[in-house]
Amino acid sequence: MTQETVIDLVRSALYVVIIVSAPPLVLGLSVGLIVSIFQTVTSIQEPTLAFIPKILAVLLSLIFFGPFMITTLQEFIVQLFTRIPELLIP
Prior knowledge:
By secondary structure, the protein is mainly alpha-helical. The protein has 3 helices and no strands. It is 90% helix and 0% strand. Helix 1 (3-42) packs antiparallel against helix 2. The model has no long low-confidence stretch (mean pLDDT 91).
């Protein structure tokens, strides 16, 4: 296995990680920002008020984007397993 092959594998793995983790992270960030703005406007300083909506947003995003995430991971793993013979035999 050459350095180019390893770099290619790591690059594609990082790309898949970013694509799969982006929906829950973006929704959690968005809900956190909205709740923070709401807390600032209303002068409410309750920490649980920011925590619970973010958890619910991430859970809903996992339910909604779950099939996409599983399909993306499955395609990457199948591609990786298919490439095993060419990776082992130079």
